[in-house]
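Hi all, long-time lurker, first post. I run a small reading group and we've been trying to get comfortable going from sequence to structure in the token notation. Rather than ask abstract questions, I figured I'd post a concrete chain and ask someone more experienced to write out its structure so we can walk through it together at our next meeting. Sequence below, copied exactly:
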Amino acid sequence: MSNMGKDSKLEEKRLYEEYKKKLLELKKVEKEKEAVGQVFTKGLLPLYVLYVLSLGPTNGNDIAHKIGERTRGLWIPSTGGIYPLLKKLEKEKFIVGKWDDSQNRMQKIYTLTEAGYVEFDDKKELLKIKIEEALEVFKIIYKDLYK
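-- Answer (accepted) --
Happy to help. Here is the structure in token form:
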């Protein structure tokens, strides 16, 4: 094999290794983004959905829309995350869903139950300290990194 053949094989191998490294870095960034996203979806979404429903009965799309409005578009949960959560909350008897077609389209309107109000208050108190701690940590990290 000539030197040029060896060189191109080495270059090909080097490029492939570089590609694999970059791919791993991208996957790591994606995982980190997911972890940050899960703080919202796992911890805060159930609480915030209960909050939105405490304001009055509404459907799943409107819940996502209202969360987006209230957070000025910074957090808009997907309906793909909202509907399974509504199903779970309904199964736990925290909300009741009733089919309605008064708007000339069939939609399920969810209402908070008595147990749902109790759950909302309990969860709100339970997470208050965690949210305050998270805000404090974010402030410190932000100050260290960007000031």
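A couple of things your group might point at:
The longest strand covers residues 95-100.
DSSP finds four helices and two strands in the chain.
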